[in-house]
Amino acid sequence: MPQTADDIDAGAVRTWCSLALDALGRERAAIDAINVYPVADGDTGTNLYLTVESAAAAVEAVFAAHETGASVPALGDAARAMAHGALIGARGNSGTILAQLLRGMAEVLADGHDADHLRLALARAASAARQAVAHPVEGTVLTVATAAAEAAGCTAGDPRPQAVAKAAYEGACTALDATPGQLAVLGRAGVVDAGGRGLVTVLGALVEAVCGEAPAHGIRVISGIAPADVDCTVAVEHDGPAFEVIYLLEAGDDAVDRLRTRLDGLGDSLVVVGGDGLWNVHVHVDDAGAAVEAGVEAGRPYRIRITHFGADRVHPHRSEPAQRGVVVVVPGDGLSGLCTEAGATTVLARPGEPPASGELVDAIRRAHAREVVLLPNDADLRHTAAAAAEQARAEGIRVALIPTRAAVQGIAALAVHEPDRSFDEDVVAMTAAAGATRYGELTVAERQSWTMAGICQAGDILGLIDGDVAVIGEDVPRTARAVIDRMLAAGGELVTLVLGEDVTDALADALEEHVREGYLAVDTVVYRGGGQGAALLIGVE
Alpha helices, DSSP H only, in 395-471? Predict the structure, then answer.
């Protein structure tokens, strides 16, 4: 249980991020279910979860860097890491606004850790978020943030951060309950604002982090309607811009001011957050290319994400759907081509850029089938994939989510896919094939750290088996052989090798020979993965 503290410190920030991530994981589906504004795309909870996940990872990295020196990070370092992680990992409209809220708080907490600074941090957060939104609307997360700050301000003179956090949470809850009366689309759907509910969840985690226990009451539900009873994809029809465009941008303040004006003329839901040369840009437009070009003119955009809201509007007259399709998340262009040849619809997950739930939903629609098998191929995509599956089911598509944790498991599942048998039989066979496939990976250590196999140094080659570091090596060939040997020690009939961009054909041939000479009756198959991030992916089944 979190410890009560008189002041906010780096540990409290770490605990806050962890508790917020856990809480959003639990609340994700409920928040997604009430997502009707600004677009009823059912991913607000997932986007908030992924944003906080990035923030928490950044904070953990700061603590990991201090472990070797047996020191503790300063509050400012942890707060800035939280804000930076949220900025680079922000998803969707709500996640982008949350990133700015956290940035506003970090700017103040870097200078102090008492109750006065926490009050000021909440006020700065609410102000910064409003300034980041081109056209603020009441009844949204901005209203909830403002109410939280005002309620915290009413505790002036109280020296306890616990009192400030509790007041902010209570003020946010009250404001959240009032949102349906402020925004007509919420009132018609009978729900509170999804982004505001997510912020209440995050503030509830703050209370638990500084008080040592969760708030006395949970989030209230208005109008007697539980989130699970709301089908937002039916209740609210999207009639706005067709695309959501998000990218990180390296640019100066003047260029960003011009960019805001340009994007405001192209679409709506414009939010630009950040500062100090790094920005996160979010906008809804019909011309996605123009939004990206505007970013190019302003500076250097990267991690560009374009999500299509209205596939049905773009393709209103389509042929009858197929009976069954498969959607596969792949880490590189090579596997994308392989899976496409096998008849699957693919979603590319570039290194450090996992797909959002909207991208997965769009892929499920593109599969144009009554039944779809979804293979996320990444344990970290479990919540995103679940959200996408739920939304697709709400649209009348039968979706089975097989929780594949690696690309080689997805390949194994796709290999036994037979669209002519019953859906349940096909899903069972694909699940069994994936489950019978152990997965390994070779990657490069970015910094010194503790692992299951001992201490690694920056630049070491790490051999992971089923997600845990099993081998620490100095070069790819020897590390690859060691990983293969360990995986085959438990038996196997087929080794699958997926080569990264820098792995030569000669090394692939050498590894094939190693398996052939050391393990009778074990076959090897090799694929080119392209820009998959890892040097080598290994599967044993």
Answer: 407-415, 423-435
Tell me how far apart the alpha carbons of residues 112 and 76 are, in angstroms, rounded to a whole number: 8
Q: Which helix (H) or strand (E) holds 304?
A: strand 300-308
Q: How far apart are CA 358 and CA 300, in angstroms?
A: 25
Token reading at 343: 């008849």
Q: Cβ(325)–Cβ(353) under 8 Å?
A: no
């505790």: which residue's tokens? 155
- pLDDT tens track for 402-443: 999 999 999 999 999 999 999 999 999 999 999 999 999 999
DSSP collapsed to 3 states, 47-81: HHHHHHHHHHHHHHHHHHHHHCCCCCCCHHHHHHH
Residue 98 in contact with residue 90, Cβ under 8 Å?
A: yes
In whole angstroms, what is the distance from residue 435 CA to residue 432 CA?
Answer: 5
Neighbours of 316 (CB within 10 A): 8
What stretches in the chain show pLDDT beneath 70?
A: 1-6, 68-70, 217-239, 310-319, 530-532
Phi, psi angle pair for 281, to nearest 5°: -110, 130
Q: What distance separates the 2 farthest-apart alpha carbons in the chain?
A: 77
Residue 374 bridge partners (DSSP) = 327, 401
Residue 524 · residue 511 · CB < 8 Å: yes
Per DSSP, what are the bridge partners of residue 498?
A: 527, 537
CA-CA-CA-CA torsion sign (421, 425, 426, 432): negative
CA atoms within 13 A on the CB side of 296: 7
For residues 233 and 42, give the distance between their C-alpha atoms in angstroms, rounded to a whole number: 8
